[in-house]
Amino acid sequence: MGLFDHVRSAREQVSNIQDTSALVASIEQCERILQADPKHLPTLLELGRLYQEHGQTQKACDVFCRAGEIAVERNDTEQALVSYRKAERLAAGDLRVELWHKLFYLSYKLRRMEEAFERAKQIVETLVERGNTKRAANFVSAMPDLGAKDAEYRQILEAMAGVVPRQTGATGTAVGTWRRATSGQRSADEYFPGQTILIVDDEPELLEILESSLRTLGARIITAANGHIACEKVKKYAPSLIISDLAMPGMDGSQFFEWVKSQPEHARVPFICLSSIGSEAERVAAFEMGVEDYWTKPFHPTEIRYRVKHLLRRLRRPVDFQGKLSQVNLAEIIQILESGRRTGLLTIESGAEQAYLYFRDGFILNAECGNLAGERAVFHLVGWTSGDFAFCTMPMMREKVIQLSPQQLLMEAFRRFDEAERVLSSLPNQHEVFVCRPGFEKAPEVAEQLAQGGEFVANLETIRQLFDGTRTLEACCQVLRDDLETLLLVRELIDRKLLVPRSG
């Protein structure tokens, strides 16, 4: 390390000490104010933020819970909802389930039935996972009426909470079938985080069928429409299993297979051939070349899923640790990986969404979730409070896209989450349908003014598509919850009367 590096390092250390001292002083000031007035809500919320920034997660969670209780006492339901949401992100275990109950009833009180239903699903799913099906069933039976979709919601929740009877005869009686009713809960043996499947076919319908049938296995699914695109996908994603059609224009399946085998780092990847040619000679030729398996079209998606599942069991990487987001929150997971200087892949699944975080020496190189990547993907994940996660140790040669440290990234994600909550709670007439007024052509100027100096840019085209006269303001903003810049632009356009209630 040269003299310049030593000087810069010393300056950074001094700066960090000064920042920490200022943070501690701000915390002490808030604590003094609260000693005189324990129910001063703005100070409580600021103290929670400061504790969070100082890394005192449990204290921050306790303070946000206290702020929620005070807001409930004052009948300020919106503020209570915001405070408990802040606590929810930091809580784990039984406290998180308790907070879900509070958020369920607050959403119900505000007549946000869809939001209340999502909270109910989190509660029931977690109780069932813990084996407390009776408590889950009791919660559903005691649940208040959730409006127009109550019957539909209740049916889904009752199915989640119920126990499916097994289709067996009396003891020792043969039933003569392999078919059995199952509980519907996925075994850990059927979940494959860290695995990547590449599907190659020039028929979009077939790609969609295979992708949807395999996605529940927890593996990442990558698709390509031809052999040339598939080659690029192999270089980028390093799949652990390839399923490829044989007859494709440009580069067919056999040529793609030969290319894969010519790449030293991918030559051992199992390769499955899909083909409408079912002759014995064709199959034998494929096996002699080294193809793992040969599946003849047409086939049943369920059967394909089970075949792939058995292959993935053989390929499974050892999982270092895994669990539920309802018991260990995202911040805790990232802190564990950072402190252990771990290198590998963190896979998170929540509902139909999957996310991937790539770590090297405890730092997050990149993150991906659907169409989101980098920091934006992490910002999206902060809102996930239920689902499965698993971390697999593996070499990680990916380019570093995220420059922030894990703690800096989490703090920015929490800040943006809190800011989005403030914007959402400040918007007027959320149950009305808003539309773009005739003067909306001025919107790009407004967007440009807001974007000055910002790292991310609001998506004006998304606003045009959402505010088409078919959705309420609340529904539009729920879609934009993870896009703070676009939410801020929506608020500004409403203030400038460029987005207006349709009734007006």
The shape, in one word, is globular
Radius of gyration: 26 Å
The description of the largest β-sheet is: 6 strands, antiparallel
The count of helical stretches stands at 20
What is the CATH superfamily label of the largest domain?
Answer: Tetratricopeptide repeat domain
CATH class of the largest domain: Mainly Alpha
Number of strands: 14
Domain Response regulatory: 196-312
InterPro entries: CheY-like_superfamily, PatA-like_N, Sig_transdc_resp-reg_receiver, TPR-like_helical_dom_sf
Keywords: DNA-binding, Phosphoprotein
GO molecular function: DNA binding
Provide an overview of this structure.
The model is unreliable at 163-169 and 181-185 (pLDDT under 50). The protein has 20 helices and 14 strands. The longest helix is centred in the first third of the chain and has 34 residues, at 3-36. A six-stranded antiparallel sheet has the order 6-11-7-8-9-10. It has a five-stranded parallel sheet with strand order 2-1-3-4-5, sandwiched between helices. The termini are far apart. It has four domains: 14-161, Tetratricopeptide repeat domain (Serine Threonine Protein Phosphatase 5, Tetratricopeptide repeat), CATH 1.25.40; 195-315, Response regulator (Rossmann fold); 321-410, no CATH class; 427-501, no CATH class. The radius of gyration is 26 Å and the shape is globular. With 504 residues, the protein is an alpha/beta fold. Helices cover 52% and strands 14% of the residues.
